[in-house]
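Internal tracking record. Fields below are filled automatically when a chain is submitted to the structure queue. Please do not edit lines marked as system-generated. If the sequence contains nonstandard residues, flag them in the REMARKS field before resubmitting.
Queue: standard
Priority: normal
Entity type: single polypeptide chain
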Amino acid sequence: MKSLYKITILFGFMMLVSSCHNNSSPNYQYFPNMYESVGYETYAESNAFNSPTGLPGKEGQLPAVGTIKRGFVPYEYENSTSGYELAKLNSKSPLDTISVENHDKSKELYEIYCAICHGNEGNGQGKLVTQGKFLGIPSYKDRVITEGSIYHVQTYGLNSMGSYANQLNQHERWLISAYVLELKSKL
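SYSTEM-GENERATED OUTPUT FOLLOWS
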């Protein structure tokens, strides 16, 4: 009998709560910033920044035409065989001389990124090659390479070697290029 009273009271309470809701007039909204952001989505509700392509809010986020990232130096050779040959012939390092600190840094970078395949001496016998994971890594003494061709390959990649442009900035790629030429001279 007690459970019947409890069920009746619960049912009555639910009817009372549901009857207070009116679909024609909305209720109060508590913490409206949780539902409608004010400052976090700047271009979301404005038509002033819509692009002509129909992508809403993207026009105001694009950089101006012809601008480049601070500290970035454009690389004028394209990612093709002709670009590689041009870089091999014409591209020169902006580093005048390699200081002792730069030499140590270039050796450290080479051992981190390159020696795993090319070997510490540049003979093509890195750890992955000796374990049989990669085959056909050439020795530097067998290749006709210049600092421009080394930089180009690090920037775009060649054959099985991928690009290192995301891991190494331009200065570090030129340091590694100088170190590779030093290893080639020792072979």
